[in-house]
Design goal:
The chain has 243 residues and is mainly beta. It folds into two domains: 6-85 and 169-240, Pnp Oxidase, Chain A (Roll); 89-159, Elongation Factor Tu (Ef-tu), domain 3 (Beta Barrel), CATH 2.40.30. 3% of the residues lie in helices and 50% in strands. The chain has one helix at residues 74-81; strands spanning 6-7, 13-18, 24-28, 33-46, 53-69, 84-86, 89-98, 105-107, 118-121, 132-135, 138-141, 150-159, 165-167, 177-187, 192-204, 221-228, 236-240. A hairpin with a 2-residue loop joins strand 10 (132-135) and strand 11. The mean pLDDT is 94.
Length: 243
């Protein structure tokens, strides 16, 4: 089997295990492309006429694992960024509505964060702010508009139900992981052989590009991880299994 000619045309499913705690962190079984590259540096001793290379030294063994995926999860973002998750979030929301029959009252859908409400007349969005007071979900304008006049309201909304927030700080860094991969190879004899890899110590690079577009293919995230040696100098295992 070890001498069989074989080829691959299937992505590698990956399990990321926290290097420190040894507990599974993410089952990444939704990638489109997984690429593992080993690298090293060669330096030479030279001697004699013509300055020829005489002795080669190899070092700086390492490599990269690159993953391309169109599917995304919060856990994946956390793996790349090292950000912390929480179950509460604040963000600005925009509401188009009308004033009541008195020309001063505006009903909100939510209780806004204190001091964040800004009101504009329709047609003057982000223009001249209308003075108002806010109590609970009710806005009262200081100066009345025509009954039923259209207005635009901006306010900060706080959500604590059914939300997952990932907070990325300048001090956030990804964890190290051990990665276990699983795919298949096909031989010239039409055998399908399980192929597994173990990357002993992997450090995701803190590069994340999130693209949002209304045309073309769905956005792709590319994750690049550096391969390092563990405490026993292990970098990578490539395992082929004959069933």
């Amino acid at each position: 089997m070890s001498n069989s000619n074989m080829a691959n045309r299937e992505v590698c499913d990956l399990i990321f295990v926290d290097y420190s705690t040894k507990k599974p962190f993410l089952n990444l079984d939704f990638a489109n492309v997984t690429t593992t590259e080993l690298t090293g540096e060669s330096v030479f001793a030279y001697g004699g006429k013509g300055h020829p290379k005489k002795v080669q030294f190899a070092g700086e063994k390492g490599g990269t694992m690159t993953i391309e995926t169109q599917m995304q999860t919060v856990k994946l973002w956390q793996l790349i960024t090292g950000g912390e998750t929480s179950a509460a979030a604040k963000f600005v929301t925009r509401m188009e509505t009308t004033v009541d029959a008195d020309g001063t009252g505006i009903a909100l859908s939510d209780v806004p964060v204190a001091g964040t409400v800004v009101v504009y007349q329709a047609g003057d969005d982000c223009g001249t702010e209308l003075d108002c007071t806010v109590a609970d979900k009710k806005i009262t304008l200081d100066t009345a508009l025509d009954a039923g006049a259209a207005v635009i309201v901006y306010y900060m909304k706080e959500v604590t139900d059914g939300v997952t927030r990932i907070n990325i700080k300048s001090t956030s860094f990804p964890k190290n992981f051990t990665v276990y991969g699983d795919t298949v190879m096909k031989t010239e004899d039409d055998e399908i052989l399980p192929y597994k890899l173990t990357a002993y110590k992997v450090a995701p690079q803190s590069n994340l590009s999130l693209s949002f577009s209304n045309s073309g293919d769905p956005g792709t995230i590319t994750i690049t991880c550096d391969l390092m040696a563990d405490k026993d100098e292990n970098i990578l295992d490539l395992i082929l299994i004959e069933e």
